[in-house]
Amino acid sequence: MVRGNRNLQHVVGRHLEFAALTGNEARGLEILSGHAGWLLDEEHRDFLVGAVMMLRRLAAMGHHDVLLPVSGADTRTGSSGMTLEDVLAHLEDRFTTIIRRFDERNGSSVESDRIAALLVRDPYCRLDLD
Known about the structure:
mainly alpha
């Protein structure tokens, strides 16, 4: 029901957040791959935060060079994707801009403070949900 439905990006973002916080990186990578088309062009805050959380977890585990099947990848090189590290850098830049605008509009740093605290969390536990 959710897969590919851009109206439910917040649900996908929360699912990625859950996977990151429960140490279920394999499922998180599967979710990211299923929504790879959103990674470079979406601006939904919850989706971006969940994607950044998951990509940071995967990078911390040493998977910097994993290729993600991102639409809009560099077609000049014939690449079918971008490295996890490149996608993460792109998303961090994009969501930082969005959160800064959100805080400026609201006249506070509540949202950026909340997200900063969320992004530095380690997984609560490791769940084997397979």
